[in-house]
Recover the amino acids of this structure.
């Protein structure tokens, strides 16, 4: 048993039972070991959850970084979509990720920020837009995954349609990008004056 095996099994347990039911006792049983042996790899459950969150983000963390010739608007949308899709890969993926700190991803985040700034987006607005898009994405996925755990939409009144989560995500993301684009254009025009 190694750290990677523990994390892999913990993520499989997450998919099977959901975040609230993930426990070190349950994970130890799944691995066929005594619970204290898990503490050799992870001192606390919080440490285990952080490692799970980092591993669950691997598909997004390995997505191609933006290139200088890329359109920043297209990249911004694609980056947020990739983040959403990665969160949706795991049961309770958004809950697992919420509140985690992307320590292992700092170089990639810096490179993404440098790309936006070199594309003409003011640094502070780039930071706030990335933060807003990330939190918006997590919130959307939290709601979508919560809806997946509820019975069908039969409980809704006839005049209330079921929510199309992807369409709602795209609409909100377009609003964030639109605001950032307008602000960037205003800052660019002011700099020319």
């Amino acid at each position: 048993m190694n750290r990677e095996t523990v994390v892999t099994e913990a993520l499989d347990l997450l998919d099977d039972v959901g975040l609230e039911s993930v426990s070190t006792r349950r994970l130890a049983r799944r691995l066929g070991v005594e619970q204290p042996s898990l503490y050799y790899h992870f001192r606390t459950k919080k440490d285990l959850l952080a490692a799970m969150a980092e591993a669950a983000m691997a598909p997004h963390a390995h997505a191609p970084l933006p290139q200088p010739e890329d359109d920043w608007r297209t990249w911004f949308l694609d980056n947020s979509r990739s983040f959403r899709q990665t969160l949706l890969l795991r049961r309770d993926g958004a809950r697992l990720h919420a509140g985690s700190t992307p320590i292992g991803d700092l170089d990639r985040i810096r490179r993404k920020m440098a790309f936006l700034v070199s594309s003409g987006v003011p640094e502070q607005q780039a930071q706030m837009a990335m933060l807003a898009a990330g939190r918006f994405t997590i919130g959307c996925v939290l709601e979508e995954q919560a809806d997946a755990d509820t019975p069908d939409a039969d409980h809704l009144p006839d005049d209330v349609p079921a929510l199309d989560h992807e369409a709602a995500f795209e609409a909100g993301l377009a609003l964030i990008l639109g605001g950032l684009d307008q602000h960037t254009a205003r800052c660019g025009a002011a700099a020319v004056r």
Q: What stands out?
A: The mean pLDDT is 90. Residues 165-192 form the longest helix (28 residues). The domain at 62-192 is CATH 1.10.357.10 (Tetracycline Repressor; domain 2). The chain has nine helices and no strands.
